[in-house]
Amino acid sequence: MGLFWRVLIILPLFFAYVNGEYFTYPSRHTGKAELAGFKGPDSLATDGGGFFSGPLVVENGATATPGNQGGTTKVTVGKPGDETLDASVGNDEIKDANMIEAATTFKGSWELFLENGGVSAMHLQLLPKINQALMFDATVWKISKIKLPPPCRHVEGTNEEDCFAHSVLMDIETGKLRPLRLHYDTWCSSGGLDINGRLVSTGGFNNGSDTVRILDLCDTCEWKEYPGALANGRWYATQVTLGDGKFMVFGGRDFPTYEFVPPEGKKNTHQDVVDFNFLVETHDPVENNLYPFVYLSTDGNIFIFANNRSVILNPKTHKIIHEFPVLPNGARNYPASGSACLLPIILKPNEDRRVIPAEILICGGAPHDAFEKADLQRPKVFLPGSCDCARLDFTKRNSKWKILNMPSARLLGDMAVLPTGDVLIVNGAKTGSAGWDDAREPNLNPVLYKFKTDGTGSKFTVLNPSNIARMYHSSFAVLPDAKVLIAGSNTNPGYLDDALFPTEVRVEKFSPPYLDPNLAMFRQEIIAEKSDNQLKYGQKFTVQIRGNGVIDQQKLQVTIYSPPFVTHGICMNQRLIQLGILEFNKDVAPNTNNIVLQAPMNGNIAQPGYYMLFVNYNGVPCVRSIWVQILP
Questions:
Q1: Would you indicate the residue range of the signal peptide (predicted)?
Q2: In CATH, what number is assigned to the domain containing residue 460?
């Protein structure tokens, strides 16, 4: 049986053999990145980046770039105003025939960004303004791949010292690392950005389970830790930001409750804890309801999904006001560990709708007994993961799940909402469960889920694979240049280099299909010094862009993105909002245009705080986003 599983793991890698390049698994990178099918930057201009080749095809009067620098490319333009219903997925999903995008056969490319990120990124948060990625795991193992500057940490209750860092700040451009000191264990914790862009993190393991910790934005800032700030221990809990910028934290092992996160330096008492029987009802013998999926609805209520059930909670009355149909075909939360994201919230110019639709997408997971079979049974049995992707508009009380099939099974994955509104499903395994050495068959191929379609073709596109297994404890961050940072993976209780799936400290960047070099002609540049960067709810603001050629307003899309706290397939507070364009003022300077936009109407649509603002043209993101702050 051992040989059988090894063959299953190795066999898919032979299919990534492209143009004479190959890689071995699970060996480390030595020197340069060993990227599946990628032959280096010099190949981009000759054979489609090592993946595809073909002539550039451009329609609708667009100007072509000479040479072949990416996949076969075609600009497709829908007929304005012609919207129809997609019967294959239900009446609530609109085929957007007015959608403008440049289609390409380019399936993305991978680059090794950092050989040693210092820690295995169990948790990952992109921090605003300073453009650094915060990565951390746990203090419990007392080891990592980077040392602390003196003095070492005293291990509570022992005579031991721990001289390793378990938290680092990484510059997303240079890869420079700065180790940060932690005293209270962050293992399987939660978090979110506050109004000023600081990370407020809650819970963890052992002495960290009732801790609130804060990291400010500066070159010398260190963690501020407040043990005992929470009334219940929050291990495997989920934190959500409300419309007024306050935080709630839900669940955690052995605590089917929730509480509001207290202000800095304050402590909750047991009177501040609310019993939440829904988390009792959704608890399997092996849990399957930890790290529940929790999102703020556009009406101020809270959507909560645990195991296979979902409800709407009024956070003011503490009453469940609606329950949706059960999602069939297994469990979705830890340790079955599917993944979820809030789909883009689409706003119109001069928005006046009473209810703004909000939808959740949940993909993958595992059978209810997957953890029992993989972790508790001997010999271990690795059950196949789920191939389901399910979508629900939770602002409609009569909503039902619309279920699609992914190209392959996936658990332990992540879902990154891209600047265009499409979703990158990445990382994870095909069989097993969350837990130490409890999963097999790494799913090396990301999949692109199209948020809107013209009604033809599949909503899923299989993209080019990484050659690094990203299993349990993997993470991601969408970056200002529209690439996706990929990090983490540790199926071991400690740092092991000789395991079947070694503890992973390498950091990669993935370029989605919209970064096909052939599409670079569509990438606009935001002129930051001429653009508003502080927004007030419902008010007009201006963004200035520069690019080559004449810009057609109908092909523009402006989105704002709240970077999530990512861990265990949970992307807490990830939110992308498409803004309504009020005016488009052409040629305010040579090749320069102003876009006048309307900020979201209130904090239930977009919580106060920092967002990355992207301008997309023909479905291609700008060269670099800018940070904007929505003021309360």
A1: 1-20
A2: 2.130.10.80
